[in-house]
Specification:
Blueprint lengths: L1 H13 L7 H11 L4 H8 L3 H8 L6 H11 L3 H5 L3 H12 L20 H36 L1
Helix pairs in contact: 3-4
């Protein structure tokens, strides 16, 4: 088991992000947050292809990096200083048989960046609007068909 764990850590470390490639760091953080490129693009108001090219960029201007960091729910510095090694270290120290107690566990960001109830209400409202548009289209279709029948 210990050998398997070491092999896994070695694999992650061998594919770790380069320290200077900010786009790869953004990509990795986005993946760890469970966010797809499309979702990040929607939040930033850009296309998915723009997010893809952003994640391939080695350097990104500060203003754009700030916007990305805000959407990802981290600080600009967290993106700049991100490393797989630190992530592995934190996971090992906080979750693998650590008997230090809950007070020593470092939690970086457990706050939601949105209110789930607001998103639920928003989804419900969008569903209602979609239903109303569908109903309107059906009424127009029925009216058109009745008009065609009246002409015959």
């Amino acid at each position: 088991m210990q050998l398997l764990k070491r092999m896994f850590i070695f694999e992650i470390m061998s594919t770790a992000t380069k320290t200077s490639h900010i786009g790869r760091k953004i990509s990795r953080i986005r993946e760890l947050r469970g966010m797809k490129q499309e979702a990040l693009a929607a939040e930033l108001g850009i296309s998915q292809q723009s997010v893809s090219s952003l994640e391939q960029s080695e350097h990104i201007e500060d203003e754009k990096l700030e916007r990305v960091a805000k959407v990802l729910g981290v600080s600009k510095e967290a993106i700049e200083n991100f490393s797989e090694e630190n992530l592995i270290y934190n996971i090992q120290n906080n979750y693998e048989g650590s008997n230090k107690g809950a007070s020593s566990v470092s939690v970086s960001n457990l706050n939601c960046t949105f209110n789930p109830l607001d998103r639920l209400v928003q989804a419900y409202e969008e569903k209602e609007k979609l239903y109303e548009r569908l109903l309107k289209a059906e009424k127009e279709k029925v009216a058109y068909l009745e008009k065609l029948l009246d002409k015959k």
